[in-house]
Amino acid sequence: MTTQTDITWIAADWGTTNLRVWALSDTGEILIHRGSDRGMGKLAPAEFEPALLDLIEDILPTRGEVPIMVCGMAGSRQGWAEAPYKSVPCPPPSIADATRVKTADPRLDVHILPGLKQLKPADVMRGEETQIAGFLADQPVFSGTLCLPGTHTKWVKLKSGVVERFRTCMTGETFALYRHRSVLRHGLSESEFDTGAFKNAVLCVLQDPKVFASELFGIRAASLVAGQTPTEATGRLSGLLIGAELASIRDEFDLADVAILGSSKIAGTYHAALECLGQDARLLDAESITLRGLTLAFSCYARETS
Amino acid sequence: MTTQTDITWIAADWGTTNLRVWALSDTGEILIHRGSDRGMGKLAPAEFEPALLDLIEDILPTRGEVPIMVCGMAGSRQGWAEAPYKSVPCPPPSIADATRVKTADPRLDVHILPGLKQLKPADVMRGEETQIAGFLADQPVFSGTLCLPGTHTKWVKLKSGVVERFRTCMTGETFALYRHRSVLRHGLSESEFDTGAFKNAVLCVLQDPKVFASELFGIRAASLVAGQTPTEATGRLSGLLIGAELASIRDEFDLADVAILGSSKIAGTYHAALECLGQDARLLDAESITLRGLTLAFSCYARETS
């Protein structure tokens, strides 16, 4: 049974929508893994500490402080405490770049890792930089492209441990908007999609990116007058959006050796889209890589303070 | 003062969002013009007649029936009564193509004009076909391009009174989704936009349509790290979306002589976008053209039944 004294430190991935924490032993064993939906988007700055305590207070030691390594939107200007961006090209941020947060509860020793920014073209990330650090921990000299799919998918060019540049596409968010809020919702399926329709749409936009805007409403129209099924419509919407994304980044990022950090359904969709280009890609588990990145930060911290 | 006996017929433009009616005299004078927000999207089939009566019952004659000419989404399958699409190429539908609706109230003589469909590429319209009829009433041999901007903008190729083909872009709906529901909303201005940023974005996408998907998140990022103002961000979003639309239709539609049916702000935005291409365009008042189209239908009906 886990006791409070077993816990050496806590890792927290605090995004816009969710907060996930892991309590770890001194050997790196995950003792507790919990989550809540109190993401940065729902919290005022003063509400972060109570939200964190709600999730972990029962596992805090009765005395002494616990190091807590945080990545993600909690470090944004509207978050808990701003952790100013580092500028690329640079290696992923380390504990030396983190912002120490003043807390009311003396048991909390909170460090927020900063995100990365790029000035030209303008771009930002918060949270993914820690995944990149976790990825590089296992393959420090990797040179190639990382794809971190999600609400805002990141494409990252890595060279010998340095983030050279990156680009964000809001494909996941756009898909959700069209699916749930637009006229297209009437003809879409609940979750399944037709793979053939998906691939045709990916290739259609890759071959001729300018068709994108008029193809979108075509999804609705084909449901009304051409017998298109809901699963075909959903596949086509997904394919048009990911096709437009690949078209927009393929000149800037080498797609011949892509590592996709994500084991979720969306990661599989990107994998299938890259297959349309004749490219294979590796799928790596995002959550364990996030924890790996936060563990790196803690290890450096423990070394410095020991 | 208008009396009930002055009213010869009623015109109704019944879209997804709104219902607008005009009561007209035998000389075509507009006696009453009213609207409500009870669009097709909010009504079950049985609710259309009560919604119409709520708006016009006080002006109906005490006996005899009043012809009511309806265009728009009220004629869709989920509307009041389905008015099956006509297929292009064809002239805009006339009263002979209309669906007569059975009503409980004997004073209502309701005719719904059908929309148009296109099989390849699949596309549909409901309501705009009546505007096209109204436009052609004044220039029956016009050959060129009509642009009907709105939530779903229509581009129409006309040749000697025939709708040869058309294309729909859901640019207005997409703009509203990004503006109110996406992460981009944080950096946008309330209503004003910067014209320079708009034009730059239109040209950026027209010159290289494939950049569209990654430029979108660039709007958010430039607000965060490059000092972009809210009016610049709004202009850029509008410009990227209309630029992508023009890129997708410019090969299919002659943009050298475009008539834009719409006097609203959105019509002005399309006019400005065409100027980026060095094209001038005529702006015509959409509402009076809709009424002109419905009047045409009534005139034919009155001729047939007299």
Automatic annotation (TrEMBL), chains A, B:
Superkingdom of origin: Bacteria
Descriptive protein name: 2-dehydro-3-deoxygalactonokinase
